[in-house]
Amino acid sequence: MQPDLHCRTLAAHTLKHFRALSPLTHCMTNDVVQTFTANTLLALGASPAMVIDPVEARPFAAIANALLVNVGTFQRLAG
């Protein structure tokens, strides 16, 4: 079976476009993966920002080019 070259071409084109944009990415992640997420986005060419404070999050969301949400270890707060 031959590999799907269209898929590779599309992925390469998408990555090139992504790097050219260097999107300011608003990341709302759990503490476990913040460093991994930031490093991955930096390696891809994005500008990650871990903004989770409610006072800062709203105005930052207005200027961000992208939003990444990861609640993999989401838990309900007591109270």
TrEMBL record:
Metabolic or biological pathway: Cofactor biosynthesis; thiamine diphosphate biosynthesis; 4-methyl-5-(2-phosphoethyl)-thiazole from 5-(2-hydroxyethyl)-4-methylthiazole: step 1/1
Cofactor: Mg(2+)
A Gene Ontology molecular function term of the record: magnesium ion binding
UniProt keywords, alphabetically: ATP-binding, Kinase, Magnesium, Metal-binding, Nucleotide-binding, Thiamine biosynthesis, Transferase
Biological process per Gene Ontology, one example term: thiamine biosynthetic process
Record-linked InterPro entries: Hyethyz_kinase, Ribokinase-like
EC number: 2.7.1.50
Enzyme superclass (EC): transferase
Reactions accelerated catalytically: 5-(2-hydroxyethyl)-4-methylthiazole + ATP = 4-methyl-5-(2-phosphooxyethyl)-thiazole + ADP + H(+)
Protein name: hydroxyethylthiazole kinase
